[in-house]
Amino acid sequence: MNYYEILGVTPDSEPAEIKSAYRRLARKFHPDVNPDGAKRFKEISKAYDTLSDEKKRKQYDTLNGFFKTEKTKTSSRQAESEYKQKTQQKSEKAQETRKKTDAKHADNKFGDIFGTIFEASQKSKKTKTPEPVNGKDINTDVTITLSEALKGTTRTVNVVHTELCPRCHGRKFINGSKCPVCSGSGEYSIHKRISVKIPANIKNGAKLRLKGEGAEGQFGGKNGDLYLYIQIKGNSNMSYDGADILYNVPITPYEAVLGGEIIIPTLDGSVKLKLPERTPSGQKFRLAGQGLKRNGKTGDMIITVSIEIPKRLSDDEVKLYEKLKKLSADNIRENIL
């Protein structure tokens, strides 16, 4: 491998000339500018590393038989000019070969004069900034209780989405090595915690949109949106139908028989309900205006009572039930069929 030919200089070239040649070639073949130039860039860097160091260059010249001539400064320049001319001829020949094999260059009839302009145009197309790409939307479920649905609440949502690596922009390799940020995957995951306010009286299955909180857009594109789908956890005693709250309330046998006013606990405090005498299990009562607020209107609370026997009964209570059994003359299952 001839380091002088790689850099386009001669053994008589001064350090400044070698440095200038390296900078010119590095700008042309750096992988960040020319993705296909990684191999050539390594050769250029290796050649410059040797020829820019006085001791390494001297050792390299000795091992490979390169010696500075004793010609005058003018002769040296002439030799260098001839060397560059040969290098230019080789370059032009290689360009001509590529033109013959590349279909895109088949129609080029302007000769070698416009070869440099054509290559610059092709390079510009390769390095042109891609079109903006909008980020994708993210969808996730959020589960809340019925109480939270009625009163409103706040939730912290963990969002995970994948984006192109900001260092290599998906190319996976930088200067021939794996990107140190994404380890060669070309992308990386972002974990984000977002605090979301859920409004009161929200419906089951409702969709909340958080603009711009989705995946990040690329090359100037807009960020996607985050959509939260509300799932309300079921409750055995309370549910709702539209704007109406459906409430199952247990009552004791004596409350069912004697009637009277009972206190019913709700999410916002309590309400009073007057039971008539001999209230059967399954009887429904409607409390107007105690439901949800929807579309400027307020629903009702529909209460369904069920007679339940207390789990803990004293001996006196059991004796009263035994006395009631002896006193009862009505067969409630007489007309069951």
Estimated radius of gyration: 43 Å
Fraction in beta strands: 25-35%
- CATH fold label of the largest domain: Helix Hairpins
Helix content: 25-40%
Order of helices and strands: HHHHHHEHEEEEEEEEHEEEEEEH
Strand order of the largest sheet: 8-9-15-12
Distance between the termini: 107 Å
On the 0 to 100 scale, the average pLDDT is 80
The number of helical elements comes to: 9
Major β-sheet profile: 4 strands, mixed
Provide an overview of this structure.
The chain has 337 residues and is α+β, with helices and mostly antiparallel strands. The chain is 33% helix and 26% strand. It has a four-stranded mixed sheet with strand order 8-9-15-12. It has a three-stranded mixed sheet with strand order 1-7-6. Strands 2-5 form a two-stranded antiparallel ribbon. A hairpin with a 2-residue loop joins β8 (238-241) and β9. α2 packs antiparallel against α3 (38-51). The longest helix has 29 residues, at 73-101. It is rod-shaped and about 130 Å long. The relative contact order is 0.08.
